[in-house]
């Protein structure tokens, strides 16, 4: 009976997945887990990152990053305006991430390519764009479908159906979370996060044209050794061209934000 009940629970959850519309109008398959569960997984992944990586003790840099995060977060829809938590990790690689539950991680190496507050806002708004575009939800839903819905759902119900189910669920669930939360985004999601993030930074009073400068810096910094992020990101030059075109169309949004008093002074 227990395997049967577990299978029925899995089938119910997979069937419950819904078609949603992303902020850019793209159709998405989401809903394999609830937003509450996504937030919990984001919090757990963030806690693990903080436990395994050294955090900066430079209060000036930490406050600088937190200021930019908060400025961007204020422009999010009300249901996303949590108290976003920021961690600055001592790591030379120019990387950043954001997770459900309002978590943002930044490596100190980002300062080598994000050379002013507007460029840092381009990084942060892009990563936050993944969260509000439900990209983690989308990836987990896809991954759970591929694994016949075991993974995360099994981890949730495993305790009710015995230790064997819980152990199996833990193994498969870990793989699903890894794929859904921590592995690189695909090109479609990257382009969408560009659109959402560039709009967010303009609404927050950061110059959207600086997203172009950021990516030029990224390319220059990676000329000797292509970083891992290039494997799943769109062609850099095409990306820069699109960012430049959008910056022009977002100029009125940026100017209106500044005229309305949204003039971040983070650093």
Automatic annotation (TrEMBL):
<dbReference type="InterPro" id="IPR051156">
    <property type="entry name" value="Mito/Outer_Membr_Metalloprot"/>
</dbReference>
<feature type="domain" description="Peptidase M48">
    <location>
        <begin position="61"/>
        <end position="246"/>
    </location>
</feature>
<protein>
    <submittedName>
        <fullName>M48 family metallopeptidase</fullName>
    </submittedName>
</protein>
<keyword id="KW-0479">Metal-binding</keyword>
<keyword id="KW-0732">Signal</keyword>
<dbReference type="Pfam" id="PF01435">
    <property type="entry name" value="Peptidase_M48"/>
</dbReference>
<keyword id="KW-0378">Hydrolase</keyword>
<comment type="similarity">
    <text>Belongs to the peptidase M48 family.</text>
</comment>
<keyword id="KW-0862">Zinc</keyword>
<keyword id="KW-0482">Metalloprotease</keyword>
<feature type="signal peptide">
    <location>
        <begin position="1"/>
        <end position="18"/>
    </location>
</feature>
<dbReference type="InterPro" id="IPR001915">
    <property type="entry name" value="Peptidase_M48"/>
</dbReference>
<keyword id="KW-0645">Protease</keyword>
